[in-house]
Specification:
about 400 residues, Formate dehydrogenase/DMSO reductase fold, about 70% helix
Protein backbone atom coordinates (compact mmCIF):
# COMPACT_ATOMS: atom_id res chain seq x y z
CA UNK A 1 0.00 0.00 0.00
CA UNK A 2 2.88 2.36 0.81
CA UNK A 3 4.50 1.80 -2.59
CA UNK A 4 1.19 2.42 -4.36
CA UNK A 5 0.91 5.72 -2.49
CA UNK A 6 4.41 6.70 -3.62
CA UNK A 7 3.56 5.66 -7.19
CA UNK A 8 0.42 7.84 -7.17
CA UNK A 9 2.52 10.74 -5.90
CA UNK A 10 5.11 10.13 -8.64
CA UNK A 11 2.42 10.14 -11.35
CA UNK A 12 0.90 13.33 -9.93
CA UNK A 13 4.28 15.09 -9.69
CA UNK A 14 5.26 13.90 -13.18
CA UNK A 15 2.07 15.36 -14.64
CA UNK A 16 2.78 18.59 -12.84
CA UNK A 17 6.38 18.92 -14.02
CA UNK A 18 5.62 17.91 -17.63
CA UNK A 19 2.79 20.45 -17.96
CA UNK A 20 4.90 23.35 -16.74
CA UNK A 21 7.99 24.88 -18.31
CA UNK A 22 9.46 27.74 -20.27
CA UNK A 23 7.96 29.28 -23.40
CA UNK A 24 10.44 27.31 -25.51
CA UNK A 25 9.28 24.08 -23.88
CA UNK A 26 5.61 24.85 -24.53
CA UNK A 27 6.38 25.88 -28.12
CA UNK A 28 8.26 22.59 -28.65
CA UNK A 29 5.43 20.48 -27.22
CA UNK A 30 2.84 22.49 -29.16
CA UNK A 31 4.79 21.97 -32.41
CA UNK A 32 5.03 18.21 -31.79
CA UNK A 33 1.30 18.08 -31.02
CA UNK A 34 0.51 19.86 -34.29
CA UNK A 35 2.67 17.42 -36.30
CA UNK A 36 1.01 14.47 -34.51
CA UNK A 37 -2.44 15.83 -35.42
CA UNK A 38 -1.40 16.09 -39.08
CA UNK A 39 -0.10 12.51 -38.86
CA UNK A 40 -3.39 11.34 -37.34
CA UNK A 41 -5.31 12.97 -40.18
CA UNK A 42 -3.10 11.24 -42.76
CA UNK A 43 -3.54 7.93 -40.93
CA UNK A 44 -7.33 8.45 -40.96
CA UNK A 45 -7.13 8.85 -44.75
CA UNK A 46 -5.10 5.63 -44.95
CA UNK A 47 -7.68 3.77 -42.86
CA UNK A 48 -10.46 5.09 -45.07
CA UNK A 49 -8.81 4.50 -48.46
CA UNK A 50 -6.51 1.59 -47.59
CA UNK A 51 -2.82 1.17 -48.39
CA UNK A 52 -3.60 2.06 -52.01
CA UNK A 53 -3.30 5.70 -50.94
CA UNK A 54 0.40 5.16 -50.22
CA UNK A 55 3.17 4.82 -52.79
CA UNK A 56 3.50 1.10 -52.07
CA UNK A 57 2.33 -1.42 -54.66
CA UNK A 58 2.31 -5.17 -55.16
CA UNK A 59 5.78 -4.70 -56.70
CA UNK A 60 7.25 -2.67 -53.81
CA UNK A 61 5.25 -3.72 -50.76
CA UNK A 62 7.59 -2.25 -48.12
CA UNK A 63 8.34 1.45 -48.18
CA UNK A 64 8.81 4.41 -45.87
CA UNK A 65 7.19 2.72 -42.86
CA UNK A 66 9.41 -0.37 -42.83
CA UNK A 67 12.46 1.72 -43.72
CA UNK A 68 11.93 3.81 -40.58
CA UNK A 69 11.12 0.71 -38.55
CA UNK A 70 14.43 -0.90 -39.54
CA UNK A 71 16.41 2.22 -38.74
CA UNK A 72 14.72 2.80 -35.37
CA UNK A 73 15.43 -0.76 -34.23
CA UNK A 74 19.08 0.26 -34.42
CA UNK A 75 18.48 3.49 -32.50
CA UNK A 76 16.80 1.46 -29.76
CA UNK A 77 19.62 -1.09 -29.64
CA UNK A 78 22.19 1.69 -29.24
CA UNK A 79 21.18 2.17 -25.60
CA UNK A 80 23.30 -0.90 -24.80
CA UNK A 81 26.42 1.19 -25.53
CA UNK A 82 25.58 3.19 -22.40
CA UNK A 83 24.03 0.40 -20.32
CA UNK A 84 27.05 -1.90 -20.49
CA UNK A 85 29.73 0.59 -19.36
CA UNK A 86 27.45 2.09 -16.68
CA UNK A 87 25.86 -0.94 -15.03
CA UNK A 88 28.38 -3.66 -15.92
CA UNK A 89 31.76 -1.90 -16.15
CA UNK A 90 30.91 0.77 -13.52
CA UNK A 91 32.14 3.65 -15.70
CA UNK A 92 31.03 6.78 -13.84
CA UNK A 93 31.32 8.98 -16.95
CA UNK A 94 28.40 7.18 -18.62
CA UNK A 95 26.18 7.27 -15.54
CA UNK A 96 24.66 10.68 -16.30
CA UNK A 97 23.72 9.68 -19.84
CA UNK A 98 22.41 6.14 -19.36
CA UNK A 99 18.87 7.06 -18.27
CA UNK A 100 18.59 9.45 -21.22
CA UNK A 101 19.76 6.67 -23.55
CA UNK A 102 17.22 4.23 -22.15
CA UNK A 103 14.46 6.83 -22.49
CA UNK A 104 15.48 7.27 -26.12
CA UNK A 105 15.32 3.48 -26.57
CA UNK A 106 11.76 3.42 -25.17
CA UNK A 107 10.65 6.18 -27.57
CA UNK A 108 12.35 4.43 -30.51
CA UNK A 109 10.71 1.08 -29.71
CA UNK A 110 7.26 2.67 -29.45
CA UNK A 111 7.87 4.30 -32.84
CA UNK A 112 8.97 0.91 -34.24
CA UNK A 113 5.69 -0.68 -33.15
CA UNK A 114 3.73 2.30 -34.51
CA UNK A 115 5.39 1.94 -37.93
CA UNK A 116 4.51 -1.76 -37.98
CA UNK A 117 0.87 -0.90 -37.20
CA UNK A 118 0.87 1.71 -39.98
CA UNK A 119 2.39 -0.75 -42.47
CA UNK A 120 -0.17 -3.44 -41.63
CA UNK A 121 -2.91 -1.10 -42.82
CA UNK A 122 -4.70 -0.73 -39.51
CA UNK A 123 -4.69 -1.74 -35.83
CA UNK A 124 -7.49 -4.27 -36.37
CA UNK A 125 -4.96 -6.62 -37.95
CA UNK A 126 -2.71 -6.70 -34.91
CA UNK A 127 -4.50 -9.72 -33.48
CA UNK A 128 -2.51 -11.82 -35.97
CA UNK A 129 0.62 -11.01 -33.99
CA UNK A 130 -0.77 -12.08 -30.60
CA UNK A 131 0.33 -15.48 -29.23
CA UNK A 132 -2.42 -18.15 -29.06
CA UNK A 133 -5.08 -15.72 -30.38
CA UNK A 134 -3.51 -14.97 -33.77
CA UNK A 135 -1.66 -17.05 -36.34
CA UNK A 136 1.63 -16.63 -34.52
CA UNK A 137 3.53 -19.40 -36.35
CA UNK A 138 6.14 -19.76 -33.63
CA UNK A 139 9.04 -20.62 -33.87
CA UNK A 140 9.21 -20.84 -37.68
CA UNK A 141 8.36 -17.21 -38.45
CA UNK A 142 11.18 -14.67 -38.07
CA UNK A 143 8.51 -11.97 -37.79
CA UNK A 144 7.25 -13.75 -34.68
CA UNK A 145 10.73 -13.64 -33.16
CA UNK A 146 10.96 -9.95 -34.04
CA UNK A 147 7.71 -9.21 -32.20
CA UNK A 148 8.95 -11.08 -29.11
CA UNK A 149 12.39 -9.47 -28.92
CA UNK A 150 11.08 -5.95 -29.53
CA UNK A 151 8.43 -6.17 -26.82
CA UNK A 152 10.89 -7.86 -24.45
CA UNK A 153 13.46 -5.12 -24.98
CA UNK A 154 10.78 -2.47 -24.48
CA UNK A 155 9.88 -4.07 -21.14
CA UNK A 156 13.52 -4.09 -20.02
CA UNK A 157 14.06 -0.45 -20.97
CA UNK A 158 10.91 0.56 -19.13
CA UNK A 159 11.38 -1.48 -15.97
CA UNK A 160 15.08 -0.82 -15.21
CA UNK A 161 14.97 3.02 -15.40
CA UNK A 162 11.58 3.05 -13.65
CA UNK A 163 12.97 1.11 -10.68
CA UNK A 164 16.03 3.37 -10.41
CA UNK A 165 14.00 6.59 -10.72
CA UNK A 166 11.32 5.28 -8.35
CA UNK A 167 13.99 4.73 -5.68
CA UNK A 168 15.65 8.09 -6.34
CA UNK A 169 12.25 9.79 -6.16
CA UNK A 170 12.02 8.52 -2.57
CA UNK A 171 15.55 9.74 -1.83
CA UNK A 172 16.92 6.18 -1.72
CA UNK A 173 19.66 4.41 -3.63
CA UNK A 174 18.69 1.67 -6.08
CA UNK A 175 19.75 -1.85 -5.12
CA UNK A 176 22.19 -3.18 -7.78
CA UNK A 177 21.06 -6.75 -7.07
CA UNK A 178 17.64 -5.82 -8.42
CA UNK A 179 18.54 -4.04 -11.66
CA UNK A 180 21.97 -5.46 -12.63
CA UNK A 181 20.55 -8.85 -13.82
CA UNK A 182 18.08 -6.99 -16.03
CA UNK A 183 20.85 -4.72 -17.32
CA UNK A 184 23.01 -7.73 -18.22
CA UNK A 185 20.05 -9.32 -19.99
CA UNK A 186 19.35 -6.11 -21.91
CA UNK A 187 22.92 -6.14 -23.30
CA UNK A 188 22.30 -9.48 -25.04
CA UNK A 189 18.71 -8.54 -25.87
CA UNK A 190 19.82 -5.37 -27.66
CA UNK A 191 22.06 -7.42 -29.95
CA UNK A 192 19.20 -9.89 -30.45
CA UNK A 193 16.64 -7.30 -31.61
CA UNK A 194 18.93 -6.13 -34.39
CA UNK A 195 20.16 -9.55 -35.45
CA UNK A 196 16.61 -10.93 -35.57
CA UNK A 197 15.51 -7.95 -37.69
CA UNK A 198 18.45 -8.63 -40.03
CA UNK A 199 17.55 -12.33 -40.15
CA UNK A 200 14.01 -11.32 -41.12
CA UNK A 201 15.43 -9.94 -44.38
CA UNK A 202 18.22 -12.48 -44.82
CA UNK A 203 15.72 -15.34 -44.66
CA UNK A 204 13.96 -14.19 -47.83
CA UNK A 205 15.94 -16.17 -50.42
CA UNK A 206 14.01 -14.65 -53.33
CA UNK A 207 15.47 -11.22 -52.46
CA UNK A 208 19.21 -11.61 -53.24
CA UNK A 209 19.96 -8.00 -52.24
CA UNK A 210 19.25 -8.93 -48.60
CA UNK A 211 20.69 -12.45 -48.78
CA UNK A 212 24.03 -11.30 -47.42
CA UNK A 213 26.01 -12.79 -44.53
CA UNK A 214 27.24 -9.32 -43.54
CA UNK A 215 23.73 -7.91 -43.10
CA UNK A 216 23.46 -8.77 -39.38
CA UNK A 217 26.92 -7.46 -38.33
CA UNK A 218 26.46 -4.36 -40.49
CA UNK A 219 23.10 -3.70 -38.85
CA UNK A 220 24.88 -3.66 -35.50
CA UNK A 221 27.73 -1.43 -36.71
CA UNK A 222 25.37 1.14 -38.21
CA UNK A 223 23.17 1.01 -35.08
CA UNK A 224 26.10 1.64 -32.76
CA UNK A 225 27.07 4.62 -34.94
CA UNK A 226 23.69 6.29 -35.55
CA UNK A 227 22.18 5.61 -32.12
CA UNK A 228 24.98 7.09 -29.98
CA UNK A 229 25.27 9.95 -32.50
CA UNK A 230 21.64 10.81 -31.77
CA UNK A 231 22.29 10.43 -28.03
CA UNK A 232 25.15 12.96 -28.29
CA UNK A 233 22.85 15.47 -30.02
CA UNK A 234 20.12 14.93 -27.43
CA UNK A 235 22.57 15.29 -24.54
CA UNK A 236 23.86 18.53 -26.08
CA UNK A 237 20.32 19.94 -26.11
CA UNK A 238 19.64 18.74 -22.56
CA UNK A 239 22.88 20.30 -21.36
CA UNK A 240 21.95 23.61 -23.00
CA UNK A 241 18.28 23.90 -21.99
CA UNK A 242 18.09 22.09 -18.62
CA UNK A 243 19.98 22.16 -15.31
CA UNK A 244 21.02 18.52 -15.83
CA UNK A 245 24.83 18.39 -15.84
CA UNK A 246 26.48 16.47 -18.67
CA UNK A 247 30.26 16.38 -18.41
CA UNK A 248 32.50 16.90 -21.44
CA UNK A 249 34.11 13.54 -20.69
CA UNK A 250 30.78 11.79 -21.20
CA UNK A 251 30.30 13.29 -24.66
CA UNK A 252 33.90 12.51 -25.64
CA UNK A 253 33.61 8.85 -24.63
CA UNK A 254 30.34 8.39 -26.52
CA UNK A 255 31.96 10.14 -29.51
CA UNK A 256 34.72 7.52 -29.45
CA UNK A 257 32.07 4.76 -29.61
CA UNK A 258 30.45 6.52 -32.58
CA UNK A 259 33.82 6.87 -34.35
CA UNK A 260 34.79 3.20 -34.07
CA UNK A 261 31.31 2.00 -35.12
CA UNK A 262 31.25 4.41 -38.10
CA UNK A 263 34.65 3.17 -39.26
CA UNK A 264 33.56 -0.47 -39.03
CA UNK A 265 30.35 0.37 -40.88
CA UNK A 266 32.33 1.90 -43.76
CA UNK A 267 34.66 -1.11 -43.96
CA UNK A 268 31.64 -3.41 -44.22
CA UNK A 269 30.08 -1.17 -46.88
CA UNK A 270 33.27 -1.41 -48.96
CA UNK A 271 33.20 -5.21 -48.53
CA UNK A 272 29.61 -5.34 -49.78
CA UNK A 273 30.38 -3.13 -52.78
CA UNK A 274 33.34 -5.35 -53.71
CA UNK A 275 31.14 -8.44 -53.56
CA UNK A 276 28.43 -6.86 -55.72
CA UNK A 277 30.55 -5.19 -58.40
CA UNK A 278 33.89 -7.05 -58.73
CA UNK A 279 32.29 -10.21 -60.08
CA UNK A 280 28.67 -9.20 -60.76
CA UNK A 281 25.90 -11.69 -61.49
CA UNK A 282 22.21 -11.20 -62.25
CA UNK A 283 21.74 -11.04 -58.46
CA UNK A 284 23.67 -7.75 -58.49
CA UNK A 285 20.91 -5.91 -60.37
CA UNK A 286 19.38 -4.49 -57.18
CA UNK A 287 22.73 -3.00 -56.19
CA UNK A 288 23.22 -1.63 -59.71
CA UNK A 289 19.79 -0.01 -59.52
CA UNK A 290 20.61 1.54 -56.16
CA UNK A 291 24.05 2.93 -57.01
CA UNK A 292 23.90 3.54 -60.77
CA UNK A 293 20.31 3.09 -61.90
CA UNK A 294 18.80 0.54 -64.31
CA UNK A 295 17.12 1.20 -67.67
CA UNK A 296 16.99 4.92 -66.99
CA UNK A 297 15.35 4.44 -63.57
CA UNK A 298 17.36 6.49 -61.07
CA UNK A 299 14.96 7.51 -58.26
CA UNK A 300 17.31 6.39 -55.47
CA UNK A 301 20.54 7.61 -57.05
CA UNK A 302 20.72 11.06 -55.39
CA UNK A 303 19.65 9.58 -52.05
CA UNK A 304 22.26 6.84 -51.78
CA UNK A 305 25.19 8.97 -52.99
CA UNK A 306 24.18 11.71 -50.56
CA UNK A 307 24.13 9.09 -47.79
CA UNK A 308 27.58 7.77 -48.73
CA UNK A 309 29.01 11.28 -48.90
CA UNK A 310 27.57 12.12 -45.46
CA UNK A 311 28.84 8.85 -43.95
CA UNK A 312 32.35 9.22 -45.36
CA UNK A 313 32.69 12.90 -44.46
CA UNK A 314 31.34 12.37 -40.93
CA UNK A 315 33.62 9.36 -40.35
CA UNK A 316 36.69 11.27 -41.58
CA UNK A 317 35.88 14.21 -39.30
CA UNK A 318 35.33 11.94 -36.28
CA UNK A 319 38.56 10.06 -36.94
CA UNK A 320 40.69 13.14 -36.23
CA UNK A 321 41.08 13.69 -32.51
CA UNK A 322 41.23 17.50 -32.65
CA UNK A 323 38.11 17.77 -34.79
CA UNK A 324 36.17 15.27 -32.67
CA UNK A 325 36.99 17.15 -29.46
CA UNK A 326 35.61 20.40 -30.88
CA UNK A 327 31.97 20.05 -29.81
CA UNK A 328 30.53 22.24 -32.57
CA UNK A 329 32.24 20.08 -35.19
CA UNK A 330 31.31 16.92 -33.26
CA UNK A 331 27.61 17.82 -33.24
CA UNK A 332 27.72 18.65 -36.96
CA UNK A 333 29.42 15.33 -37.75
CA UNK A 334 26.94 13.37 -35.62
CA UNK A 335 24.05 15.04 -37.43
CA UNK A 336 25.53 14.11 -40.82
CA UNK A 337 26.17 10.55 -39.70
CA UNK A 338 22.64 10.15 -38.35
CA UNK A 339 21.03 11.40 -41.58
CA UNK A 340 23.42 9.40 -43.77
CA UNK A 341 22.69 6.11 -41.99
CA UNK A 342 18.96 6.88 -41.93
CA UNK A 343 18.98 7.15 -45.74
CA UNK A 344 21.27 4.18 -46.30
CA UNK A 345 19.53 1.88 -43.85
CA UNK A 346 16.07 3.05 -44.89
CA UNK A 347 15.50 3.64 -48.59
CA UNK A 348 18.92 2.28 -49.46
CA UNK A 349 18.19 -1.10 -47.89
CA UNK A 350 14.45 -1.74 -48.16
CA UNK A 351 13.37 -0.47 -51.60
CA UNK A 352 16.18 -1.98 -53.78
CA UNK A 353 15.30 -5.42 -52.40
CA UNK A 354 12.12 -5.30 -54.50
CA UNK A 355 13.73 -3.90 -57.66
CA UNK A 356 13.81 -5.40 -60.22
CA UNK A 357 10.81 -7.65 -59.65
CA UNK A 358 10.74 -11.46 -60.15
CA UNK A 359 10.17 -11.04 -63.90
CA UNK A 360 12.73 -8.28 -64.33
CA UNK A 361 10.23 -5.43 -64.30
CA UNK A 362 11.40 -2.19 -62.69
CA UNK A 363 8.61 -0.45 -60.77
CA UNK A 364 10.01 2.46 -58.78
CA UNK A 365 8.65 3.59 -55.45
CA UNK A 366 7.97 7.14 -54.31
CA UNK A 367 6.20 7.80 -50.98
CA UNK A 368 2.99 9.84 -51.12
CA UNK A 369 2.26 12.86 -48.95
CA UNK A 370 0.00 10.64 -46.83
CA UNK A 371 2.90 8.29 -46.04
CA UNK A 372 5.18 11.22 -45.30
CA UNK A 373 2.52 12.75 -43.01
CA UNK A 374 2.04 9.52 -41.05
CA UNK A 375 5.83 9.11 -40.78
CA UNK A 376 6.35 12.63 -39.47
CA UNK A 377 3.47 12.12 -37.03
CA UNK A 378 5.08 8.97 -35.62
CA UNK A 379 8.47 10.68 -35.29
CA UNK A 380 6.74 13.58 -33.51
CA UNK A 381 5.02 11.10 -31.19
CA UNK A 382 8.39 9.55 -30.34
CA UNK A 383 9.91 12.97 -29.63
CA UNK A 384 6.87 13.88 -27.51
CA UNK A 385 7.15 10.68 -25.43
CA UNK A 386 10.90 11.09 -25.00
CA UNK A 387 10.49 14.72 -23.88
CA UNK A 388 7.99 13.69 -21.20
CA UNK A 389 10.24 10.85 -19.99
CA UNK A 390 13.37 13.00 -20.01
CA UNK A 391 11.71 15.91 -18.18
CA UNK A 392 10.53 13.60 -15.39
CA UNK A 393 13.88 11.79 -15.16
CA UNK A 394 15.84 15.06 -15.09
CA UNK A 395 13.53 16.40 -12.37
CA UNK A 396 14.21 13.33 -10.21
CA UNK A 397 17.95 13.23 -10.90
CA UNK A 398 18.39 16.94 -10.12
CA UNK A 399 16.37 16.38 -6.90
CA UNK A 400 13.74 18.95 -7.80
CA UNK A 401 11.20 16.11 -7.87
CA UNK A 402 11.01 14.26 -4.56
CA UNK A 403 8.40 12.31 -2.64
CA UNK A 404 6.90 14.78 -0.18
CA UNK A 405 5.85 12.03 2.20
CA UNK A 406 9.47 11.81 3.32
CA UNK A 407 9.37 15.43 4.49
CA UNK A 408 6.15 14.82 6.45
CA UNK A 409 7.66 11.76 8.09
Amino acid sequence: MGRFKVFKSLVRDSLDITTHGSKKYHFWMGFLTLVMLVGMYCYFLQLEEGLAITGMTDRVSWGLYIANFTFLVGVAAAAVMLVMPTYVLKDIDFKQAVLIGEGLAVAALIMCLAFVVADMGGPSRLWHMLPVIGVFNFPNSMLTWDVLVLNGYLFLNLSIPFYILFRHYQGKEANPKVYIPGALLSVFWAVAIHLVTAFLYQGLQARPFWNNALLGPRFLASAFAAGPALIILVLALIRKFTPFVIQDTTLKKIAMVVTVAAQINLIMLISELFKEFYAPTHHSESAYYLFFGLDGKTALLPWIWTAIALNVLATVILTFHKLRNNFNILFFACGMLFVGIWIEKGFGLIVPGFIPGPYGKIAEYTPTWVEIGVTLGIWAMGAFIFTLLAKTAIGIETKSLRYKGNAKA
